[in-house]
Amino acid sequence: MNATEAAVIELERQLIEGIKTSNLDFLDRILHDDVRFITPDGGVLTKEADLASHRAGTMVVESLTPTFERISAHGDTAVVVVVYDTKGNMLGEPIEGRFRYLRVWKRFGDGLKVIGGSCTKL
Asked: Which pTM value belongs to this model?
């Protein structure tokens, strides 16, 4: 089954809500166990580290407004480029501004999952 643009947009929207509400069940389901995410400071974030920040309440998102720039579907994989206007707090540090994300989705037997990504502050 292919990763369609419409399916990816819907999952991106659900991901935004999952992040804003720290929905651990959803995030656990949608993030691949071996996902790697490059943070704006060059660090590498794993699934467990991401979930742990939500679980501990150190990831607080007040607002996260997307502007989708490009979605490219290629068979069972899709690449998303999206800019977020963001306001929140991570590990006691305020996060505010515009960030461009690159996210890679891949279809597995149990659905589309995020397998990689990166973020740059604009």
From this structure: 0.90
